Amino acid sequence: MKSIVLPVLLLVGTMTTKAAASSGNPRWWVQPGQDDFYSHVGLVVFFLAIYLIMHLYARFDHYAERLAKGTPLRTTVPVMLTVALAYEIMPALAHFSILLPAALIATAIARDFMLWWRPGHEELAK
Predict the structure, then answer these.
(1) Closest alpha carbon to 104 in 74, 126, 75
(2) By the 8 A CB rule, do 75 and 112 touch?
(3) Mean pLDDT value across residues 54-73
(4) What's the confidence (pLDDT) of residue 51?
(5) For residue 81, which of 101, 107, 111 has the smallest C-alpha distance?
(6) CA–CA separation, 110 vs 73, rounded Å?
(7) I want to staple 108 with a disulfide (CB 3.0 to 4.6 A). Which of 35, 52, 63, 75 is the partner?
(8) How far apart are CA 28 and CA 36, in angstroms?
(9) Looking at the whole model, is its pTM more than 0.70?
């Protein structure tokens, strides 16, 4: 098997090299100053993927918030999920201080505590 694979790979490599050399530049090459169609398509696909992730997360967050209506951590869990999503989508956030997500989570815990402490003072219905 090894004796067949190497000659086939060499033959395919020489064929593609001749084909690429005869046609000039590859399809993805763009001359300086010209418009690049593939980069625009790539950006659109990238932003659609980000939008899909955020849309699915928002659906899940809305579902989790509706299920957690009477629980003591109804604000904290969605905030923790938001912080986790932000850290997953943007790995550069790992270089920031841990105090930012800790402050967000502490604020959500404080809000949940106040909603639990005085249940008659619920926020106005939308």
Answers:
(1) 75
(2) yes
(3) 79
(4) 92
(5) 101
(6) 10
(7) 75
(8) 9
(9) no
